[in-house]
Amino acid sequence: MAKKISPTKRILGFLKTRKKMVGFLLLLVVLTAVADISVPFISQKLIDTLIQFFKNGGGFPLNTLVSSAVGIFIATIAAQTIKSVYDYNLFITVTKIEDGVRRAAFEKYLRLHAIFHHKSSSGQIIGRIERGATAIYAILNDIFGENLLPPLVTFSAAFVSLIFKNVWIAVAVILPLPIYLLAIRKISQKIYEIENKSNEEFEAVSKNGYDVASNVLTVKKFSQEHPEAQSYADLLLVARNTQYGGERLWKVMSNVQSVIATLGRIAVILLGGFLVLNGKSTVGEFVLYVTLQNMAYGPLWQLSNVLPRLRRNSSRVERLFRLLDEPVRVTDKLGAITLPPFHDKIEFRNVSFRYSEERRWALKDMDIEIPVRTTVALVGRSGSGKTTFINLLLRSYDPDKGEIMIDGHDLRDVTQESLRNQIAVVPQEVDLFSRTIAENVAYGKPEVSREEIERAAKIALAHDFVVKMEKGYETLVGERGVRLSGGERQRVGIARAILRDPKILILDEATSHLDTESERLIQEATDALVKNRTSFIIAHRLSTVLHADTILVFKDGMIEAAGNHVNLLETSPTYKKLYSLQFNETGARP
Known about the structure:
20 helices; alpha/beta
């Protein structure tokens, strides 16, 4: 098993393609530290000169005073200017990395296999992407911003300066550091564990909120506003209580840092004062020691904050990386070809599939051939394999056994895009984007003209209700098409399929949400649409599929029988039973 790479190391790996920029930033950090560290040395020279003047008299050291003031001014302005250039370039670099990871994670989410999407909450995953990408920015900004790298460079410069000035003062500064780092490490590990738990609980809050928001009309119908709000508040309270435990540890760490820094400062003051009193150091050097000690311990104060924050954000990034590392089960093989226009037949050759090794076969030993321009109806009880059959044709999954062929091409040998460009689907529940009606009809074909959109809408009997709306085709349909009725959404979905002009058409109970008159008209439009196309119709109501060229009867993941309506009444017990249940109760006959 490969050794697991820490989230921080993976994030730093993104800088490999930006080596020149990283080198430039490091140079700016060093130049800033040099400018900063020069100020206390200038001050030391000035203080010693002034004390010498007050002690021994002589000419007023005006040149020293002016040159020191000018030197401090130039060093300070230079440090601030370089810092501004550094901060600007760092912000651009870090945000580009953040946006790149955010896009990669979102694209990966879209490309993941259907089983992953069935098991996951979209609100939870989107929340994970948002928090993870923001955490990547925070980590890089902490490392290269004002919290880690620049302070450590300043600490190193101050410590090296103290070694050259007085090694005992340097020892006094460095002595508490091991204790300090050990304390931070132990507390940071505890904070990391708490943050992992907290992130899981906040993701549960996001999942609950998204779930309720997407079903808000159902909530209102059942008068569940208060219970749902209370449930959300309860989940939030649990997450906050966990988070508060981490915050308490942060404060403990802050107190530890304060005590150790104070002890180090006192040690430098006592030792420096002793050296001055014994004539081994000047007053200016004493001030220099104290100033350099403050410059050294200032970064340590940042360290006490940044290490736990890195731990906190690392747990969020780790969850994002788990999404990025999720294997894509259906991919285009190397050298996959573009599927030529469908013209001959579709074949399922001994196809078997199951969703996991623990579950039964969803399809087993499926062996069927569908000629081009055939209308095929799929019937059977729920869970009999109809939807799985369609999903395998769409290559949402790959079969565990056997092969699916279109005109002799195994679907695994062609690109997914070229396959799906020849297929249009009208699902049982048409999902619309919160965009205009025109954009929803033209989804997947943004280059089409308004005339083509309107023609498709007319065939789908959607044009009349669309033009009556306030903004016509520019009307926003709301989230998931909430501003449209079920029948209107269905017709927009049919118009979308018509516009694709597909070689293969899939209708999944496409008329199930329409009133009787609309269903009759839609049936007429559908009859025109399926003409000269290979069509698959999934329906529980046999009245919609009686005139199909072939009816496939599914039972327990296998095809029990295939044929037309009359033949199946004689050969298929399942079809006969379904027919009896739907028509005998009313005495109606198709």
